[in-house]
Specification:
The chain is of the alpha+beta class. Helices cover 28% and strands 37% of the residues. It comes from Agrococcus baldri.
C-alpha cells in the first residue's frame, strides 16, 4: 500500500467513524461486499501480462454489536460474500493464489457502523465444488449426473407443478458442468434462453417451471474439501 493509499484509508476511517458515532447505524452486508471488492482492487498486484494477483485471506473487523447481529446469518452470509468476491475477481481479471479464506471478527475498539478489512495472501491448492441454490436451500453437486425434477426419484426434488418428474440434468466432472433438458413438458431455460444442452458458467440461472436454480462454484482448500 502506498503513502496516498494510507492517507485515503485514514480519511475513510475517520469519516466512517464520525457517521457511525452520529447515527449509530449498523453495518449491512452490502457495505461489507463493497469494502471487500475495494480491498481486492487496492491490493491487486500485476505479476505478468496475464496474471493479476489479489489476496485470498481476508478478515472483516466489526464492532461487537454488528458482529453479533451479522453472525446470526450463519454461513450463508460468508457464502454470499465469497461469491461476490469471486464474481468481482472474474470480471476484473484477478487471480487468487489459493482458496478464499474469509472471516468476521469482533473488535472492541470499533464503533457500531464501522468496519475494517485486513488481507494477506497464502498459496494453496484450490479444489472447486459445484452447488445449486434453490429456494433458499443449497445443494452440493456430486461428480457425475444430478437429476432435478418434481418426482421423488429425482436426485433433487422441487415442489413445482410446472416441473416434470425428471426435468433437467446437471453433469459435473469436477471442473466443468453441463445442464440438459430431459424432454420436459415446459422446457428449461438458461439465463432466459431455452436450451436442450449447454455448458454452465458460474452464477448461471436455470429456470424449470416456476423454480429458479442458481449454479455456483465455490473454492476450497484441499483440506476443507
Amino acid at each position: 500500500m502506498g503513502f496516498l493509499d494510507s492517507i485515503e484509508r485514514g480519511l475513510e476511517k475517520a469519516v466512517n467513524g464520525a457517521f457511525a458515532k452520529t447515527f449509530r447505524s449498523g453495518v449491512e452486508p452490502v457495505e461489507i461486499a463493497s469494502a471487500l471488492k475495494r480491498e481486492l482492487d487496492t491490493q491487486a498486484s500485476v505479476v505478468s501480462r496475464d496474471r493479476i494477483l489479489v489476496p485470498n485471506r481476508l478478515t472483516v473487523r466489526l464492532a461487537p454489536a454488528d458482529f453479533q447481529r451479522l453472525r446470526r446469518l450463519g454461513d450463508s452470509l460468508l457464502d454470499e460474500l465469497t461469491g461476490t468476491m469471486q464474481t468481482h475477481a472474474r470480471q476484473s481479471g484477478y487471480s487468487f493464489p489459493g482458496p478464499i479464506d474469509l472471516g468476521l471478527e469482533p473488535d472492541e475498539g470499533m464503533t457500531t457502523g464501522m468496519l475494517e478489512i485486513s488481507s494477506d495472501s497464502e498459496a494453496g491448492e484450490v479444489v472447486w465444488s459445484a452447488v445449486v441454490d434453490i429456494k433458499g436451500k443449497r445443494y452440493r453437486l456430486r461428480r457425475g449426473s444430478t437429476v432435478i425434477g418434481r418426482g421423488s426419484d429425482a436426485d433433487i426434488t422441487v415442489d413445482d407443478a410446472g416441473a416434470s418428474r425428471k426435468h433437467a440434468e446437471i453433469i459435473w466432472d469436477g471442473t466443468r458442468a453441463q445442464v440438459s433438458d430431459l424432454g420436459s413438458t415446459n422446457g428449461t431455460t438458461l439465463n432466459g434462453r431455452a436450451l436442450k444442452s449447454a455448458l454452465l458458467e458460474p452464477d448461471s440461472i436455470i429456470d424449470i417451471g416456476a423454480t429458479r436454480i442458481v449454479y455456483r462454484l465455490l473454492a476450497q482448500s484441499k483440506e476443507q474439501a
